[in-house]
# Entry
Amino acid sequence: MTAILRPDATDLKLIGYYLGKVLLGLGLLQLIPLVTALALREWNSASSFAIGAAIAIIAWAVSDARLASRQPLTWAHGMVIVALAWLLGPIVAAVPMYLSGRFTDPVHALFEAMSALTTTGMSVIHDLDHTPVSEDLFRHLLQITGGLGIIIVVLSVFAAGGARMTTLYVSEARDERVLPNIIRTARFIFQVATTLFVVGTTALFIALIATGFSPGRAVYHAVNLFFSSFSTGGFSVMQSSMIYYHSAAVEFIVALIMIAGTLSFGLHLALWRGNPRDVLRHLETRTLAVTTSILFLLLCIGLVRAGSYDTLEALLRKGLFTLVSAASSTGHQVNVGDTYLYDWGLLAPAAIVGAMAIGGMASSTAGGIKAMRVGVTFKSLTHEIRRILLPEAALVVTTYHAGRRQVLRDESARAATTVLLLFIASYLLGILAALAYGELDLTQAIFESVSVGSNIGVSIGVVNPGMPDGLVLVYLLQMWVGRLEFVAAFALLGYLFSLARGRAST
Amino acid sequence: MNGRRAQHRRAPTRQLLLGVVVVLAALLGGVIWLEALHPQLDATGNVVEGAPPLALDEQPTCRRFVDETPIVDIRERLESEAGRARIREGFPSGGRVSSTQVFLCPSAYDGMEVTYVGEVVGELLRRRGGAWAQVNDDDYALRTGPLVGHRERAGFNTGLSVWLPEQLAERVEQPGRPALRGDVVLLRGTILRADPDDGGGLTLRATQLETLAPPLAIDPPLHVLQIVVAAVLSVVALGTTLWARRVRRR
# Structure
């Protein structure tokens, strides 16, 4: 039997060194709201961002001076660094949030930061409608940073050691390298985001001006809306989310940005290179098209049968938009959360839960089980049925298109179903935790747990500033493992186990 | 011998992990301490006077297509003797409702004429013939004022989307913003559960508006200690960065 080796101080130093770089990224990010706060004379907010940025920069400087190492990164290092980065990042981001005085306690501030970075988009902030501009901007900046991937952002800014970084990139739940070179991949992602930012915010700006906004406020809302939509995060400037705008044009543009956010960066590259055929025959595109169509049909049946809406416009603006928001894992709301429970009957919310569970595409900013895994699981199911029905001597080969034609292998099918089952386990954990508090019914518990566990953000009203800390902690765990798609989280657990029980290397 | 050597190797690992735990604990303690020292304003003077009482004291719920009995019950209670008494007092048949009551059973209020009190927040989105306004009736609107300089945390903002005809929209002086409570208005109008002119949104179509409280600007008290800590930490961050650069060069 192979003994587990205990990581030594050199391993921990290496991990600390790379975590320092991630913290530097988050520290520098806080300089943007800091400058905004100074410009708007929001002095208390400015000082809280200065504290947050300073702590992150001090941590980086110490790690850079004391922990720098030329030791190569192993897969285990990569996994542990990513898992810890997604824990430490929210902790650092929670510092200015808690200092703002808008959170019940530090755990709630941590929830908000984790929700922002994992692009879940659930919020527990008190009095959002009177929140200083800089603090609101910070929430949205965290979403775009988290949506693109903290590691990707750091790679783009501090591009060095490309070979070492591959392991970090893949560990951050991105199994598809868009371009052969990892730094070029990171820069391509940045390039896509920047281009869409210019196009998206311009379109939103025009729509918001037509909606009745002043130019200054239109810019502010357009930028934040783009951040939260493309990152598939779903935070909003106003508590009433998309309801606030009363505009079909704004909803349409936001829906397009959400769809762009949920497309994998591999498909963005195909579109970028003028190859839409690749997009259309990709297994993920087909899976999402089929599942979303079926779910939309169910949603419409549910809404019409319950008598919730009786016009096509209402079905599209309230029903379809919510479905796109859920399927893209964004979480923008065109309804008050209570509506899903009290005004939508039973079938329509179930369709939304289905869309939230599936989520968006792999290697995108989206969350959820991911269409690729659902597609592969379905393919493996049909493969098994064909194998049973055909003569025993027949060689059954199942293929699918994902960038190129691929043969379905046992390992990919097993990996997809394992993660799918782990997501279901995460949903069950959240459901049981919510039910344990005794004040929620099953619909609420299921809806919210799937939304949190898939990093979606459409809320039925369970997540709120008065939520008990126990439930907050369970939801925090769900968001974290959901964003990491479990592997890095389990690797961290294994690493901790080997720290405690492993044999020292000689 | 081997055991002692292993123990010796384990020491730096333990120190590193212990160091991380200590730093995180210090960070948590420091942040809690600093937030607790935030200077506070007295928010008791921000209560809005003159709002009529709610027609229903509790918040009954109903579920469309699942449990619709409360819909009839709520409508009957709003149109009961007490409701009629309110009509005599000059209020519409629905009495005053809160946004939460409406959200918990929208069907019961659909098409009903009601009174609603809240703060106009954000902006007035002017369209042909009027403007859309977000009117919140949470505690920040009616009791404590915006969450600035006090710790009266009262949860999410809640409110209704209100359509104000031109002549009513013109009477709104200033919607709420950071550190500013907007006009608090008493509205009379009709609740529409799925307003066809708003793509199926739940709205209040206002017909009358009275201003109960003018805009209230709040000057946030400066947290001097936090500013000092920020300045000190910024200097330390700069110093540590320079030190790190020198160490790496060596």
